Structures are given as C-alpha cells and as structure tokens.
C-alpha cells in the first residue's frame, strides 16, 4: 500500500496532486510545527495572470511563525485572494466548473492557516476525486520527529511503500525503512507548465485551463521511477 505525506498546502501545486493520485493513503501532516520562510511553499501558491505574469498568493500570518500548524493564525485579509484568482481565471475555458467550489473556500472567515489550507485541499479533492484515503496526522498516535516521523506514520496506516519527493528522500532514515520492509519510491514527474510557461503552478491553473477530466488524466500519470531499498 502506497503512502504519501505532505504538510498542509495552500492550493497545492500540481506535483503535490500527482503524489496524491499515486497513493492509496495520503497523510495530511498537520501535527508538526509551522515554519515560514522564503523557500517553503506550504502557505503560498502561484497563479498566472491574464497577461502571463506569475502571481504568488501567500496567506498572511497572524502571530508567531514558529507555532504548530494548529495554532498558526491567519489575518482576515486572506479572503482577498479570491479577487485575484477570479481575475486570473474567470475567462479561462473551464472556470465555471470549479468556481462554486473555489468561492466556497472564501465564504467564511478562518482562524488558522491550516484551516484555510484544509478547505482548499477538500475543495480540490471533491473536484478531482482521486481514489485515495485521506488521514490527518493529528488524528494518529504518532509523535516522532523528522525522518522517523515519516516512517512511523507509514507504519501506523499499514503502508508498504512511501512516496517521497526527490529532495525529501535525502532526509529519510533509509536503513530503517529497509529494516521494516518498507519501500521508498521517489517521485519523478514533469509537472505541466501553464499556458504561458509558468512552471508547476497551482492546480487551479490546470483545472481552469484543461478541465476536470483532463486534469485528472494528467495528475494520474505514472510518476514513481526510482525505488530505494
């Protein structure tokens, strides 16, 4: 059984959704510390304007940047992102198919960044309908750290294969995975670019331009070329 794990992500980019489609169980890693930096994408996404400019949407943090995911607050201004998303995609061919789900995300206020990210994930999950079981790590009795946390979460849900991103595999205790008889598969998938060449944009871009059936087909393309252990 294949397991993928990522931290909460705001309108996740396409490579994250390819990993969701490749897994039997997907774990939403909301039991760890939230950390905000210029290199992390969990609290931001990138969309393409009507004239081809990349626009980064970042959830405005309220409070400490070193809080737990369950405690990292969000400023009320986060709901302004809907205006930008509409401006970018309202004239794209398949916007009307996803507009109700997108607009529902912004209908009510939220207290935390995790809550907003979860809304966007659930909205996409309903639209794309991958055949995957979703589990929140906060609902599991696992409190390990770093690479051991990943292994213990995979074991907790009965996984036999962990799907890792390329950079993430270097942080894993591969010897422990081998000892437990759990395979590590490394994602190798060329994420689609936007119509103007923006690399690996938000999954919103793919759905609005290609449509839901075509998006499902692209995101479910085989991606696990490298196996370790």
Helix and strand topology:
Blueprint: E1 2-6, H1 14-22, E2 25-28, E3 44-48, E4 54-58, E5 61-62, E6 73-74, H2 81-89, H3 95-105, H4 113-128, E7 133-136, H5 146-156, E8 161-164, H6 174-179, E9 183-187, H7 203-210, H8 212-219, E10 224-228
Parallel strand pairs: 1-2, 1-8, 2-7, 8-9
Antiparallel strand pairs: 3-4, 5-6, 9-10
Radius of gyration: 17 Å
N/C terminus separation: 16 Å
Mean pLDDT: 93
The helix-strand sequence is EHEEEEEHHHEHEHEHHE
> Could you tell me the strand content as a percent range?
15-25%
Fraction of residues in H or I helices: 25-40%
**Physical arrangement of strands within the biggest beta sheet:** 7-2-1-8-9-10
For the secondary structure, the number of strands is: 10
Low-confidence stretches: none
Q: What characterizes the major β-sheet?
A: 6 strands, mixed
Form type = globular
In total, how many domains does the architecture comprise?
A: 1
Classification by helices and strands: alpha/beta
Helix tally equals 8
Name its key features.
alpha/beta, 229 residues, 6-stranded mixed sheet, two-stranded antiparallel ribbon
How would you portray this structure in words?
The strands form 3 sheets. The protein has a 6-stranded mixed sheet with strand order 7-2-1-8-9-10, with helices on both faces. The chain has a two-stranded antiparallel ribbon with strand order 3-4. It has a two-stranded antiparallel sheet with strand order 5-6. The chain is of the alpha/beta class. It has one domain. The protein contains 8 helices and 10 strands. The protein is globular, with a radius of gyration of 17 Å.
């Amino acid at each position: 059984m294949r397991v993928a794990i990522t931290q909460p992500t705001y309108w996740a980019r396409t490579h994250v959704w390819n990993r969701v489609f490749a897994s039997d169980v997907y774990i939403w890693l909301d039991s760890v510390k939230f950390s905000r930096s210029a290199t992390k994408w969990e609290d931001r996404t990138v969309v393409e304007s009507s004239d081809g400019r990349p626009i980064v949407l970042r959830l405005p943090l309220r409070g400490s940047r070193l809080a737990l995911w369950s405690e990292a607050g969000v400023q009320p201004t986060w709901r302004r992102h809907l205006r930008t998303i509409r401006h970018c995609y309202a004239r794209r061919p398949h916007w009307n198919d996803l507009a109700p789900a997108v607009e529902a995300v912004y209908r009510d206020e939220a207290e935390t960044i995790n809550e907003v990210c979860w809304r966007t994930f659930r909205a996409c999950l309903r639209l794309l309908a991958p055949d995957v079981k979703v589990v929140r790590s906060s609902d599991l009795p696992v409190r390990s750290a770093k690479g051991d946390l990943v292994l213990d979460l995979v074991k907790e849900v009965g996984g036999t294969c962990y799907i890792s991103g390329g950079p993430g595999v270097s942080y894993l205790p591969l010897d422990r995975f081998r000892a437990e008889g759990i395979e590590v598969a490394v994602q190798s998938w060329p994420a689609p670019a936007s119509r103007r060449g923006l690399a690996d944009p938000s999954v919103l871009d793919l759905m609005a331009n290609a449509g839901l059936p075509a998006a499902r087909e692209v995101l479910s393309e085989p991606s696990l070329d490298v196996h370790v252990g």
